[in-house]
Amino acid sequence: YPYVTGSSVVAIKYKDGILMAADMGGSYGSTLRYKSVERIKPIGKHSLLGASGEISDFQEILQNLDELILYDNMWDDGNSLGPKELHSYLTRVMYNRRNKFDPLWSSLVLGGVKKGHKYLGMVSMIGLNFEDNHVATGFGNHLARPILRDEWHENLSFEDGVKLLEKCMRVLLYRDRSTVNKLQIAKITEEGVTISQPYSLKTFWGFSAFQNPTQDAEGSW
């Protein structure tokens, strides 16, 4: 069973590449124990990986990917693994561990750009996988993706893409107890990977529903 877990990861395609956002909280059970956990990492030359779920399992996955990238580089054949190949590899790894009844308790988001082609997909802890223009894990599946369905379009600029991700992360901060107001946004283009320094979003807690959340609840005190 998972011990220290991370919450949602949200990612989108934009005009020049892929944008990915995740907060930096690590929950020990229901306690927000760690607040500086980096859950977005560059993989090889063309890919970016984000994870929610068990942090130590994510670290094991990163070790496996490091070995895979090293082995691929040793061939020195002028080619390198792209996001599509890494997504396929992760799908097999997660499904294999699920079949052994010893799953890696993580949901993964894999995005990248290779030879002008943008790729974005996710893999669940049981090997469920798909590719889409925007993906999310955890509560992001329920709270962020409806926003993305309404507001995402393929010609998003970098600035508009960041604003859209910040809107999603702000909603998750309001509604998901496992989220902290400290996040990173990463982008990957043909030029490479850039991961922002951690920063906080401006928030407003004066909504009447926040001040008295049980006012209209049936059976409330």
TrEMBL record:
Assembly notes: Component of the 20S core complex of the 26S proteasome. The 26S proteasome is composed of a core protease (CP), known as the 20S proteasome, capped at one or both ends by the 19S regulatory particle (RP/PA700). The 20S proteasome core is composed of 28 subunits that are arranged in four stacked rings, resulting in a barrel-shaped structure. The two end rings are each formed by seven alpha subunits, and the two central rings are each formed by seven beta subunits. The catalytic chamber with the active sites is on the inside of the barrel.
CDD domains: proteasome_beta_type_4 (cd03760)
Organism expressing this protein natively: Morella rubra (Chinese bayberry)
UniProt-listed InterPro entries: Ntn_hydrolases_N, Proteasome_alpha, Proteasome_beta4, Proteasome_bsu_CS, Proteasome_sua/b, Proteasome_suB-type
A GO cellular-component term linked to this record: nucleus
Compartments where found: Nucleus
Name by which UniProt lists this protein: Proteasome subunit beta type-4
Keywords per UniProt: Cytoplasm, Nucleus, Proteasome
Major location category of this protein: nucleus
GO biological process: proteolysis involved in protein catabolic process
